[in-house]
Amino acid sequence: xxxxxxxxxxxxxxxxxxxxxxxxxxxxxxxxxxxxxxxxxxxxxxxxxxxxxxxxxxxxxxxxxxxxxxxxxxxxxxxxxxxxxxxxxxxxxxxxxxxxxxxxxxxxxxxxxxxxxxxxxxxxxxxxxxxxxxxxxxxxxxxxxxxxxxxxxxxxxxxxxxxxxxxxxxxxxxxxxxxxxxxxxxxxxxxxxxxxxxxxxxxxxxxxxxxxxxxxxxxxxxxxxxxxxxxxxxxxxxxxxxxxxxxxxxxxxxxxxxxxxxxxxxxxxxxxxxxxxxxxxxxxx
Length: 285
Fold this sequence. Notes:
With 285 residues, this protein is an all-alpha fold. The protein is built from 14 helices and 2 strands. The protein has one domain. 66% of the residues lie in helices and 2% in strands. It has a two-stranded antiparallel ribbon with strand order 1-2. Helix 7 packs antiparallel against helix 8.
């Protein structure tokens, strides 16, 4: 009883990086943001070193492990978003340790570290730009709130080892970042192969029904990429695709808001959100 009470008090006084009143919680609590997660993976894969490092060390090159990597990434995002500072610090140390221990190799044999600031920044911006874009087009989040969201996410950037002062703090700064880095990115062979594999992922037997959901979800995520990103993959960057993707995102948002949330969150996210909700209810009571 004492342990339970102390944990409840800790949660009331430790909302983590963001807290219930943040724009981050409002955006990340929307089921349509699942599309942004897949969009981010496609965007992040366009940095050749990020993609090669991923390919050489993780599930893309090993059949049967893709689902595990996806779950681990999703649970990291859940803890970073909803966990207490103690939980965030713990998962951050683990992620930084893993990244610091890994190196990748370019085609010419040049080695590189996976925790290089340029690579970490690219991954961060790909994730946050994707959340922001889906929130804008699918949910209708205001420009002001999107700027607040991007600024809040600098706290999350520090968790993986980035200097928050070197991370974009607004939508305009994100746009500037992409304008500057675009000449150095392209879809390497590993990125194109990963794109193809993503439409037929290996999932646990008990979750085989998810395979029916993956192709339309991936198609929408890919269509929501910026036109220049789709062109790098060798597909058209037509503005008509942008219009269609925006309409589909709005429809997806409208439909998922009527679904039970327990069907749309992985166990880690449900547990963390439930802990905060329970603490808030006890505090108000």
